[in-house]
Amino acid sequence: MRIRLAVTVLGLGLVASVVPLQAHHSVAASFNTGTTITIKGVVTKIEWMNPHARFWVDAKNDDGTVSNWELELPPPNALKRQEGGKLDFIKQGDQVTVSFWQAKDGSRLAHALTLTLPDGRVMNFPHGWGMPTNSN
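Request: output the structure for the sequence above.
Response:
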């Protein structure tokens, strides 16, 4: 009976350790890393949730219409370490400039590379978020 219980617990532990790996994605598999896009716009929403913090920006297109972009950031804890324990560097309504890799499916989902804040400070997102980029 004890062996059966130990095998069950071990099996559940193994399954639980694999599930988080399935949730994460490869940047190169999901985003077009060969082309960097830069937009200017207004922050409309921010989420500080794992596995990636996210924010949305309304950016004006060449034809005058507005597109809402969803931009992935590093996890909230990584951002806290980068920003001295605070997550108040960006706020809804801020005018920002963002460079990113767009999702390969053509959606308005993107992987943020740099974020220029209203005060002119530029945030780079290293450690898997800072591969060399090509400005196009």
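The helical segments are 2-23, 27-30, 76-82.
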